Amino acid sequence: MAKITLQGLAHSYLETPTSPEDFALQELNHDWTDGEAYALLGPSGCGKSTLLNIISGLLIPSHGRVLFDGKDVTHLSTADRNIAQVFQFPVVYDTMTMRENLAFPLKNRGLAASEINARVERIGRMIDMTDVLDRRAAGLTADAKQKISLGRGMVRDDVNALLFDEPLTVIDPHMKWELRTQLKKLHHEFGHTMIYVTHDQTEALTFADKVVVMYDGRVVQIGTPDELFERPAHTFVGYFIGSPGMNLFDAEVQGRTAGIGGAEIDLGEGYRPGPGATKIGVRPEYIRLGQTGIPARVTRVEDVGRHKIVRLDAGGTQVAAIVGEGAPVPDGGTHIVFAPGGVNVYENEWRVVPEGGEAPLGAGREAA
Protein backbone atom coordinates (compact mmCIF):
# COMPACT_ATOMS: atom_id res chain seq x y z
CA MET A 1 0.00 0.00 0.00
CA ALA A 2 1.17 3.51 -0.68
CA LYS A 3 0.43 7.17 -0.17
CA ILE A 4 -0.28 8.56 -3.65
CA THR A 5 0.72 12.19 -4.28
CA LEU A 6 -0.40 14.17 -7.33
CA GLN A 7 1.75 17.27 -7.92
CA GLY A 8 0.68 19.88 -10.47
CA LEU A 9 -1.08 17.18 -12.44
CA ALA A 10 -2.83 18.17 -15.69
CA HIS A 11 -3.48 16.46 -18.98
CA SER A 12 -4.49 17.35 -22.53
CA TYR A 13 -5.00 14.93 -25.38
CA LEU A 14 -3.87 17.70 -27.77
CA GLU A 15 -0.20 18.01 -28.71
CA THR A 16 -0.10 21.77 -28.21
CA PRO A 17 -2.86 22.92 -25.83
CA THR A 18 -3.26 26.69 -25.77
CA SER A 19 -6.05 27.30 -23.23
CA PRO A 20 -7.58 25.68 -20.14
CA GLU A 21 -10.43 24.39 -22.31
CA ASP A 22 -7.90 22.19 -24.16
CA PHE A 23 -7.23 20.14 -21.00
CA ALA A 24 -9.26 17.03 -20.18
CA LEU A 25 -7.83 17.24 -16.65
CA GLN A 26 -7.26 20.63 -15.03
CA GLU A 27 -4.36 21.13 -12.62
CA LEU A 28 -4.65 19.02 -9.49
CA ASN A 29 -2.59 18.76 -6.31
CA HIS A 30 -3.62 16.15 -3.78
CA ASP A 31 -2.44 13.40 -1.43
CA TRP A 32 -4.33 10.11 -1.37
CA THR A 33 -3.88 8.78 2.16
CA ASP A 34 -2.44 5.29 2.49
CA GLY A 35 -5.16 2.75 3.24
CA GLU A 36 -8.21 4.94 2.54
CA ALA A 37 -11.00 4.25 0.07
CA TYR A 38 -11.70 7.01 -2.46
CA ALA A 39 -14.39 7.38 -5.11
CA LEU A 40 -13.97 9.51 -8.24
CA LEU A 41 -17.51 10.71 -8.92
CA GLY A 42 -18.86 12.73 -11.80
CA PRO A 43 -20.71 12.60 -15.12
CA SER A 44 -19.33 11.05 -18.29
CA GLY A 45 -16.49 13.06 -19.82
CA CYS A 46 -15.54 14.90 -16.62
CA GLY A 47 -12.01 13.41 -16.43
CA LYS A 48 -12.47 10.51 -14.02
CA SER A 49 -10.97 7.79 -16.21
CA THR A 50 -8.21 10.12 -17.40
CA LEU A 51 -7.13 10.66 -13.81
CA LEU A 52 -7.37 6.96 -12.97
CA ASN A 53 -5.31 6.00 -16.01
CA ILE A 54 -2.62 8.50 -15.03
CA ILE A 55 -2.43 7.00 -11.55
CA SER A 56 -2.28 3.47 -12.98
CA GLY A 57 0.40 4.30 -15.55
CA LEU A 58 -1.73 3.69 -18.63
CA LEU A 59 -1.39 7.40 -19.44
CA ILE A 60 1.55 9.80 -18.95
CA PRO A 61 0.31 13.26 -17.90
CA SER A 62 1.06 16.38 -19.95
CA HIS A 63 2.16 18.17 -16.77
CA GLY A 64 3.02 17.26 -13.21
CA ARG A 65 4.13 14.18 -11.33
CA VAL A 66 2.69 11.07 -9.65
CA LEU A 67 4.48 9.85 -6.51
CA PHE A 68 4.00 6.62 -4.55
CA ASP A 69 5.33 7.06 -0.99
CA GLY A 70 7.46 9.94 -2.23
CA LYS A 71 8.95 8.04 -5.20
CA ASP A 72 8.34 9.56 -8.63
CA VAL A 73 6.52 6.94 -10.74
CA THR A 74 5.25 9.30 -13.46
CA HIS A 75 7.07 7.46 -16.24
CA LEU A 76 6.99 3.95 -14.76
CA SER A 77 4.87 1.25 -16.39
CA THR A 78 1.74 -0.11 -14.76
CA ALA A 79 3.57 -3.31 -13.78
CA ASP A 80 6.38 -1.35 -12.14
CA ARG A 81 3.90 0.62 -10.05
CA ASN A 82 2.69 -2.61 -8.43
CA ILE A 83 -1.03 -1.92 -8.62
CA ALA A 84 -4.12 -3.99 -9.37
CA GLN A 85 -6.86 -2.65 -11.62
CA VAL A 86 -10.41 -3.91 -12.16
CA PHE A 87 -12.19 -2.70 -15.27
CA GLN A 88 -15.83 -2.18 -16.22
CA PHE A 89 -15.87 -5.31 -18.37
CA PRO A 90 -14.23 -8.20 -16.46
CA VAL A 91 -11.62 -10.41 -18.08
CA VAL A 92 -11.90 -14.04 -16.95
CA TYR A 93 -9.95 -16.96 -18.43
CA ASP A 94 -12.67 -19.41 -19.49
CA THR A 95 -10.32 -22.37 -19.87
CA MET A 96 -9.24 -22.10 -16.22
CA THR A 97 -11.15 -22.94 -13.08
CA MET A 98 -12.19 -20.08 -10.86
CA ARG A 99 -9.48 -21.14 -8.41
CA GLU A 100 -6.87 -20.90 -11.17
CA ASN A 101 -8.17 -17.48 -12.18
CA LEU A 102 -7.73 -16.19 -8.65
CA ALA A 103 -4.31 -17.81 -8.31
CA PHE A 104 -3.00 -16.49 -11.64
CA PRO A 105 -1.38 -13.23 -10.38
CA LEU A 106 0.19 -15.10 -7.45
CA LYS A 107 1.71 -17.81 -9.66
CA ASN A 108 3.17 -15.12 -11.89
CA ARG A 109 5.02 -13.79 -8.85
CA GLY A 110 6.38 -17.22 -7.90
CA LEU A 111 4.66 -17.64 -4.53
CA ALA A 112 4.74 -21.04 -2.86
CA ALA A 113 1.78 -23.33 -3.56
CA SER A 114 0.73 -23.36 0.10
CA GLU A 115 0.65 -19.55 0.25
CA ILE A 116 -1.29 -19.36 -3.02
CA ASN A 117 -3.87 -21.87 -1.79
CA ALA A 118 -4.32 -20.04 1.53
CA ARG A 119 -4.89 -16.67 -0.14
CA VAL A 120 -7.26 -18.08 -2.77
CA GLU A 121 -9.33 -19.83 -0.10
CA ARG A 122 -9.52 -16.62 1.92
CA ILE A 123 -10.68 -14.57 -1.06
CA GLY A 124 -13.07 -17.35 -2.09
CA ARG A 125 -14.78 -17.03 1.28
CA MET A 126 -14.91 -13.26 1.02
CA ILE A 127 -16.63 -13.34 -2.39
CA ASP A 128 -18.84 -16.26 -1.33
CA MET A 129 -17.60 -18.66 -4.02
CA THR A 130 -15.76 -21.32 -2.00
CA ASP A 131 -18.08 -24.11 -3.12
CA VAL A 132 -17.51 -23.44 -6.84
CA LEU A 133 -13.80 -22.58 -6.97
CA ASP A 134 -12.92 -25.78 -8.81
CA ARG A 135 -15.47 -25.28 -11.58
CA ARG A 136 -14.38 -23.95 -14.95
CA ALA A 137 -15.07 -20.28 -15.48
CA ALA A 138 -16.77 -20.79 -18.86
CA GLY A 139 -20.41 -19.71 -18.89
CA LEU A 140 -20.30 -17.55 -15.76
CA THR A 141 -22.90 -14.82 -15.31
CA ALA A 142 -21.74 -11.20 -15.50
CA ASP A 143 -21.90 -10.74 -11.73
CA ALA A 144 -19.93 -13.97 -11.10
CA LYS A 145 -17.26 -12.85 -13.57
CA GLN A 146 -16.97 -9.51 -11.81
CA LYS A 147 -16.67 -11.28 -8.46
CA ILE A 148 -13.73 -13.25 -9.85
CA SER A 149 -12.23 -10.06 -11.28
CA LEU A 150 -12.61 -8.27 -7.95
CA GLY A 151 -11.16 -11.25 -6.11
CA ARG A 152 -8.18 -11.40 -8.45
CA GLY A 153 -7.47 -7.77 -7.64
CA MET A 154 -7.74 -8.41 -3.89
CA VAL A 155 -5.76 -11.67 -3.73
CA ARG A 156 -2.41 -9.87 -3.63
CA ASP A 157 -1.48 -8.21 -0.36
CA ASP A 158 1.60 -6.40 -1.71
CA VAL A 159 -0.10 -3.94 -4.08
CA ASN A 160 0.39 -0.18 -3.71
CA ALA A 161 -3.23 0.48 -4.68
CA LEU A 162 -6.37 -1.11 -6.05
CA LEU A 163 -8.06 0.82 -8.86
CA PHE A 164 -11.63 0.19 -10.00
CA ASP A 165 -13.02 1.69 -13.22
CA GLU A 166 -16.85 1.52 -12.98
CA PRO A 167 -16.70 -2.18 -11.97
CA LEU A 168 -20.44 -2.61 -11.34
CA THR A 169 -21.85 -1.02 -14.50
CA VAL A 170 -22.61 -4.37 -16.17
CA ILE A 171 -24.04 -5.93 -12.99
CA ASP A 172 -27.78 -6.42 -12.51
CA PRO A 173 -29.21 -3.82 -10.10
CA HIS A 174 -30.18 -6.40 -7.45
CA MET A 175 -26.56 -7.67 -7.35
CA LYS A 176 -24.89 -4.26 -7.10
CA TRP A 177 -25.65 -3.81 -3.40
CA GLU A 178 -24.21 -7.23 -2.56
CA LEU A 179 -20.98 -6.69 -4.49
CA ARG A 180 -20.56 -3.15 -3.14
CA THR A 181 -21.00 -4.46 0.40
CA GLN A 182 -18.45 -7.22 -0.21
CA LEU A 183 -15.98 -4.71 -1.62
CA LYS A 184 -16.37 -2.49 1.44
CA LYS A 185 -15.84 -5.55 3.65
CA LEU A 186 -12.68 -6.47 1.74
CA HIS A 187 -11.35 -2.96 2.24
CA HIS A 188 -11.96 -3.09 5.97
CA GLU A 189 -10.22 -6.46 6.24
CA PHE A 190 -7.17 -5.81 4.07
CA GLY A 191 -6.75 -2.01 4.29
CA HIS A 192 -5.64 -1.43 0.69
CA THR A 193 -5.60 2.05 -0.79
CA MET A 194 -8.61 1.96 -3.13
CA ILE A 195 -9.72 4.37 -5.85
CA TYR A 196 -13.13 3.68 -7.35
CA VAL A 197 -14.43 5.45 -10.47
CA THR A 198 -18.20 5.78 -10.84
CA HIS A 199 -20.92 8.10 -12.11
CA ASP A 200 -23.36 6.62 -9.55
CA GLN A 201 -23.59 8.71 -6.38
CA THR A 202 -25.03 5.80 -4.36
CA GLU A 203 -21.98 3.65 -5.18
CA ALA A 204 -19.62 6.48 -4.30
CA LEU A 205 -21.26 7.54 -1.05
CA THR A 206 -21.70 4.01 0.31
CA PHE A 207 -18.22 2.79 -0.64
CA ALA A 208 -15.76 5.61 -0.05
CA ASP A 209 -14.15 7.25 2.97
CA LYS A 210 -13.63 10.33 0.79
CA VAL A 211 -15.44 11.23 -2.43
CA VAL A 212 -13.65 13.22 -5.15
CA VAL A 213 -16.29 15.07 -7.18
CA MET A 214 -15.19 16.03 -10.69
CA TYR A 215 -16.80 18.43 -13.13
CA ASP A 216 -15.58 19.58 -16.53
CA GLY A 217 -12.06 18.23 -15.99
CA ARG A 218 -11.68 19.77 -12.55
CA VAL A 219 -11.86 18.43 -9.01
CA VAL A 220 -14.46 20.67 -7.37
CA GLN A 221 -14.59 19.03 -3.95
CA ILE A 222 -12.99 16.23 -1.94
CA GLY A 223 -14.86 15.29 1.21
CA THR A 224 -16.86 12.83 3.25
CA PRO A 225 -20.46 12.06 2.24
CA ASP A 226 -21.69 14.36 5.06
CA GLU A 227 -19.49 17.22 3.86
CA LEU A 228 -20.74 16.84 0.30
CA PHE A 229 -24.35 16.85 1.46
CA GLU A 230 -24.20 19.65 4.05
CA ARG A 231 -21.54 21.92 2.53
CA PRO A 232 -21.25 21.50 -1.24
CA ALA A 233 -18.18 23.54 -2.22
CA HIS A 234 -19.58 24.21 -5.70
CA THR A 235 -23.12 24.46 -7.01
CA PHE A 236 -22.46 21.44 -9.23
CA VAL A 237 -21.82 19.30 -6.14
CA GLY A 238 -25.10 20.47 -4.65
CA TYR A 239 -26.90 19.60 -7.88
CA PHE A 240 -25.16 16.26 -8.50
CA ILE A 241 -25.30 14.90 -4.93
CA GLY A 242 -28.74 14.20 -3.55
CA SER A 243 -32.05 13.14 -5.04
CA PRO A 244 -33.46 15.62 -5.84
CA GLY A 245 -30.40 17.86 -5.93
CA MET A 246 -29.94 21.21 -4.23
CA ASN A 247 -32.30 24.09 -5.04
CA LEU A 248 -30.55 27.26 -6.26
CA PHE A 249 -31.99 30.78 -5.97
CA ASP A 250 -30.57 33.98 -7.43
CA ALA A 251 -30.21 36.30 -4.45
CA GLU A 252 -28.84 39.56 -3.13
CA VAL A 253 -26.98 38.86 0.11
CA GLN A 254 -26.20 41.47 2.74
CA GLY A 255 -24.96 40.14 6.05
CA ARG A 256 -27.63 37.84 7.52
CA THR A 257 -30.28 38.74 4.97
CA ALA A 258 -30.94 37.54 1.43
CA GLY A 259 -33.41 39.09 -0.98
CA ILE A 260 -35.13 36.42 -3.09
CA GLY A 261 -38.17 37.02 -5.27
CA GLY A 262 -39.18 40.16 -3.40
CA ALA A 263 -38.96 38.45 0.00
CA GLU A 264 -36.29 38.91 2.66
CA ILE A 265 -34.89 35.71 4.16
CA ASP A 266 -32.91 35.41 7.39
CA LEU A 267 -29.81 33.32 6.60
CA GLY A 268 -29.01 32.63 10.26
CA GLU A 269 -25.34 33.59 9.64
CA GLY A 270 -23.54 36.64 8.30
CA TYR A 271 -21.95 36.51 4.82
CA ARG A 272 -19.75 38.84 2.80
CA PRO A 273 -19.76 37.59 -0.79
CA GLY A 274 -17.73 39.49 -3.37
CA PRO A 275 -19.03 41.32 -6.45
CA GLY A 276 -19.79 38.15 -8.42
CA ALA A 277 -23.18 36.56 -9.08
CA THR A 278 -24.67 35.37 -5.80
CA LYS A 279 -26.91 32.35 -5.23
CA ILE A 280 -28.50 30.64 -2.25
CA GLY A 281 -28.40 26.85 -2.17
CA VAL A 282 -30.92 24.89 -0.08
CA ARG A 283 -31.46 21.16 -0.22
CA PRO A 284 -35.05 19.88 -0.56
CA GLU A 285 -34.79 18.43 2.95
CA TYR A 286 -34.50 21.98 4.35
CA ILE A 287 -37.37 23.60 2.41
CA ARG A 288 -40.50 24.25 4.52
CA LEU A 289 -44.00 25.15 3.33
CA GLY A 290 -45.82 27.84 5.29
CA GLN A 291 -47.83 31.06 5.40
CA THR A 292 -44.88 33.45 5.03
CA GLY A 293 -41.66 33.59 3.07
CA ILE A 294 -41.09 33.29 -0.69
CA PRO A 295 -44.36 33.01 -2.66
CA ALA A 296 -44.60 29.70 -4.54
CA ARG A 297 -47.14 27.53 -6.31
CA VAL A 298 -47.37 23.73 -5.99
CA THR A 299 -47.15 22.17 -9.45
CA ARG A 300 -46.76 18.45 -8.66
CA VAL A 301 -46.52 16.02 -5.76
CA GLU A 302 -44.53 12.78 -6.04
CA ASP A 303 -45.27 10.19 -3.34
CA VAL A 304 -42.19 7.93 -3.05
CA GLY A 305 -43.37 5.96 -0.02
CA ARG A 306 -41.23 7.19 2.86
CA HIS A 307 -41.83 10.85 1.97
CA LYS A 308 -43.27 13.16 -0.66
CA ILE A 309 -41.38 15.33 -3.12
CA VAL A 310 -43.29 18.54 -3.65
CA ARG A 311 -42.46 20.43 -6.85
CA LEU A 312 -43.06 24.17 -6.78
CA ASP A 313 -42.69 27.23 -8.96
CA ALA A 314 -41.30 30.23 -7.06
CA GLY A 315 -41.46 33.16 -9.47
CA GLY A 316 -40.06 31.08 -12.33
CA THR A 317 -37.54 29.17 -10.20
CA GLN A 318 -38.26 25.44 -10.01
CA VAL A 319 -38.06 24.20 -6.42
CA ALA A 320 -38.20 20.73 -4.83
CA ALA A 321 -39.20 20.21 -1.20
CA ILE A 322 -39.21 16.94 0.75
CA VAL A 323 -42.02 16.57 3.30
CA GLY A 324 -43.13 13.73 5.51
CA GLU A 325 -45.47 11.07 4.15
CA GLY A 326 -48.35 12.30 6.33
CA ALA A 327 -47.66 16.02 6.01
CA PRO A 328 -50.41 18.13 4.42
CA VAL A 329 -49.58 19.72 1.06
CA PRO A 330 -51.50 22.84 0.02
CA ASP A 331 -53.26 22.80 -3.33
CA GLY A 332 -51.92 25.73 -5.32
CA GLY A 333 -50.47 28.82 -3.64
CA THR A 334 -48.16 28.64 -0.62
CA HIS A 335 -44.86 30.05 0.64
CA ILE A 336 -41.46 28.49 1.23
CA VAL A 337 -38.95 29.15 3.99
CA PHE A 338 -35.56 27.60 4.79
CA ALA A 339 -34.80 25.52 7.87
CA PRO A 340 -32.08 27.07 10.07
CA GLY A 341 -28.65 25.65 9.29
CA GLY A 342 -29.72 24.40 5.86
CA VAL A 343 -28.54 27.38 3.77
CA ASN A 344 -25.38 27.71 1.67
CA VAL A 345 -24.28 30.92 -0.06
CA TYR A 346 -22.41 30.87 -3.40
CA GLU A 347 -20.53 33.51 -5.35
CA ASN A 348 -19.72 32.66 -8.98
CA GLU A 349 -20.79 29.05 -8.20
CA TRP A 350 -18.30 28.60 -5.30
CA ARG A 351 -19.37 28.40 -1.67
CA VAL A 352 -18.83 31.38 0.66
CA VAL A 353 -17.83 30.56 4.25
CA PRO A 354 -20.00 32.34 6.87
CA GLU A 355 -18.34 35.14 8.83
CA GLY A 356 -18.71 33.38 12.16
CA GLY A 357 -17.09 30.15 10.95
CA GLU A 358 -18.62 26.78 10.24
CA ALA A 359 -21.37 25.21 12.35
CA PRO A 360 -20.96 21.50 13.21
CA LEU A 361 -21.87 19.17 10.37
CA GLY A 362 -25.46 18.02 10.64
CA ALA A 363 -26.69 21.17 12.41
CA GLY A 364 -29.14 21.80 9.60
CA ARG A 365 -30.61 18.31 9.84
CA GLU A 366 -31.01 18.66 13.60
CA ALA A 367 -32.81 21.95 13.10
CA ALA A 368 -34.98 20.41 10.41
What would you give as the CATH superfamily of the largest domain? Answer: P-loop containing nucleotide triphosphate hydrolases
CATH fold topology of the largest domain: Rossmann fold
Topology, number of strands: 21
In the sheet with the most strands, the strands line up as 6-7-8-3-9-10
Proportion of residues in helical segments: 25-40%
Q: Number of DSSP helices?
A: 10
3D shape: globular
Secondary-structure content class: alpha+beta
> How many angstroms does the end-to-end distance come to?
42 Å
Low-confidence stretches: none
How many whole angstroms does the radius of gyration measure?
24 Å
Keywords:
368 residues; alpha+beta; Rossmann fold; OB fold (Dihydrolipoamide Acetyltransferase, E2P); 2 domains; six-stranded mixed β-sheet; five-stranded antiparallel β-sheet; 21 strands; ATP binding; ABC transporter ATP-binding protein; membrane; nucleotide-binding
Describe this structure in words.
The protein is α+β, with helices and mostly antiparallel strands and 368 residues long. The chain folds into two domains: 4-12 and 24-223, P-loop containing nucleotide triphosphate hydrolases (Rossmann fold), CATH 3.40.50; 243-367, Nucleic acid-binding proteins (OB fold (Dihydrolipoamide Acetyltransferase, E2P)). It contains ten helices and 21 strands. The chain has helices at 48-56, 78-81, 98-108, 113-126, 142-154, 173-190, 201-207, 225-230, 235-240, 363-367, and strands spanning 4-11, 25-32, 37-41, 63-68, 71-72, 83-86, 161-165, 194-198, 210-215, 218-223, 247-250, 252-260, 263-271, 278-282, 287-290, 294-303, 307-314, 317-324, 333-338, 343-347, 350-352. The strands form five sheets. Strands 6-7-8-3-9-10 form a six-stranded mixed beta sheet, sandwiched between helices. A five-stranded antiparallel beta sheet has the order 15-19-16-17-18, with no helix packed on it. β9 and β10 (218-223) form a beta hairpin. α3 crosses α4 (113-126). The chain is globular. The chain starts with a strand and ends with a helix.
